[in-house]
Amino acid sequence: QAVAFTVAQVGAPFSAPRRAGAGAALHARSMAKDVRKPEFWNKFMQRPEVQAAMRSKLKYESYAEQAKRTKLDKLERKQRRYELMDELMKVATNVKHLISPMFRYKITQQYLWKVLCEARQEGVLFCDKLREPQVYHRLMAIKAEITAGPYGVAGWQAEEEVEEDLMDKFVVEADCIPGGIDGEAPDRKQVLDRREIQGVLDFGQQIKSEGNEAFANENWEGALTRYCQGDELLKNYRAEPHLDKENKELKTMHRACLNNKANAALKMDQWQNALRAAEAALKLKQDDEKALFRKALALEGLGRTDEALETLDEVEQIALDMDEEFREAIMADVQERREEIKDIEKRAAVDYAKLFKALGSKEVFSAGRFLADGTSPPRALTAAEERKLKAMKDKQEYLAAKAKHDAEQLKKEGGQPAPRALPKEPEMPTPNRPAGLGYRRFERSRTITRPQAEQLLDQLLELYSDEDFQKKVHAEARAVLYETQPFLRRLKKTAFVVQQPLLAKWGFDETEEGLQEMMICLNDHTLKDTKLRAKADETTKMLYGGEDGMWGIDAA
What we know:
Elements: H1 2-10, H2 21-35, H3 38-45, H4 48-55, H5 63-88, H6 93-99, H7 106-122, H8 126-130, H9 133-146, H10 164-174, E1 190-192, H11 194-216, H12 220-234, E2 237-239, H13 244-267, H14 271-284, H15 289-301, H16 305-319, H17 324-361, H18 383-412, H19 450-464, H20 467-479, H21 484-506, H22 512-526, H23 530-543
Parallel strand pairs: 1-2
Helix pairs in contact: 1-4, 5-7, 6-10, 11-12, 11-13, 12-13, 13-14, 13-15, 14-15, 15-16, 16-17, 19-21, 19-23, 20-21, 21-22
C-alpha cells in the first residue's frame, strides 16, 4: 500500500517524455514489460524523489476531526451563500431567472463564489462580471450539465440543501410578477440592466410624446389611453441598484405620465380615475404640487369639498418655498378653486334647505309616518282602486234605494213588505257566540269543567294578544279596506293557525268542527258565569285586533 501511495503521489512527475512515431509505441511496450518485473520496482524505489516521498509522514484524521472540519466547511458554505444572495438580489431579473433553478447545486455555488472573488479583485460590480461572455456561457454550460439527466452532475457537485428563506426569496425575485399575484407586493418590479432599461425609457418617452400631442389637439380620450399605456409600462420595471441615473429618470418619467393621466381624466370628468392617478404620483413624490392640485380637482368633482380644501392648503404650503413667479401663479389657481368650492357649498346649502322643507311638508319625518302600533299607514289607493271602490258604494246605494222603493210601492198596494234578507256573514265562532244554528244539538266528544274553561280562555287571550298576531290582523283589515265580510273570511284562516296547536293540546280535533266544539264547551260556562263571560268578551276583542282593529263588527 505504501508503494502504491508513493507511485500515485509522485508518478506523474516521473512519467516518460513523449516520443514521436514508432519509437514512442516501442517505449510504451517496454515500459509495460518493465512494470511487471520486480527489478523495475527495486530500481524505482532507489530514486531520490521516491525516497523523499517515503520519508514524509502521512497525516491521519480522527472521526472527531473529520466531523469538525465538515461542520466548519458547511458553515463557510452557508456564509458564502448569504453573501452570494445579497449580490444576486442586485442583478437583472433575466440573470436571476437563469441561476435560480440551479442555485442549490454545489457546482453553481462554487463557480459563483469564484466569479464574486474575481469581481472584487478586479474592482468591478458582480452584475457586470456576470454579463461577461465567458462567465455567462459557463453558467449556461453548468445548466446543461445539471439538466443532462442521470449522466449529469453527481457526487460532490450534486444538490445540497439550501436555506428555505433564501430559496423562497430568490425564486420569487427570479419569477418576478410585478405587483405580486394578487397585488400583495406593490413594490415588486422587474430589474433590468443598462441596455434593457434604456429601451424601456425610449419607448416610455415615445408614448409620453404621443399622449402630449393628442392632449394638445384636445383628443382627451386618445391622450388618456397613451398615458395609461405609459403608466402600465413604467410601473413594472426598475434599473439595477447601481444605475442611479437611469432609476431617477425612470421615476421622473413615470410621475409625469401619472400627472398627465390625471389631467386627461379630469378633462373627461373621470374623477375616480383622476384621483387614483394623482395619489399614485404622490407616492413617487409627496410634495408634487401638480399632483396635489389635480387631486384637489378630483375631490371637488366627487363632492368631497372638505378634503379638497385640505389638499389646496397643502399646495399653498408647498408654493411658499418656490420662486416668486411660480408662487404667484399657484396661489392664484388655489384661491380661484377655493372660492369656487365655497360657492358650490352655498348653493348646495340652499338646495338642501328646499329639499328638507319639501320633505317636511310631506310628513316624511313626522309622527304621521307610523301608526300607534308601530306599523306604517295603509298605502294610498291607486286610480283603478278608487274607481272600483266608488262603483261598489254606488251599487250599494242603488240596491238600498231600490229596496226602499219596492217596499213603498207594496205598502201602497196594501201588501206587507217582505223582510229584507241580510247578507249572510261568514261564521266566526267565539266563546260567547258559537257559530251555527242548533249548536246545542251538536254531538260532542268531550266536555270541560269550569276551571278548565277559565284556563283555556286565558290561553286563548295570550295567543290573540301576541304582537305578531295583532300585526297580521291589522294587515288583513287594511288589505280589505276594513270591509266586514272579506275581513272575517281572512281572519278565520289567520286565527286557525294559532288555534290549531291549542286544539291538539286540549284533545279536540284539529279541524273547524273541533274548533266549534271547543267554543261550545266554553259557551256552556260563559252563559252561567258573568266573570267568564267578561273574559270571553276580552278574548274576542283581541281576536278582532282590539281597538285599532275590527272590534265591534259582530255586535248584535
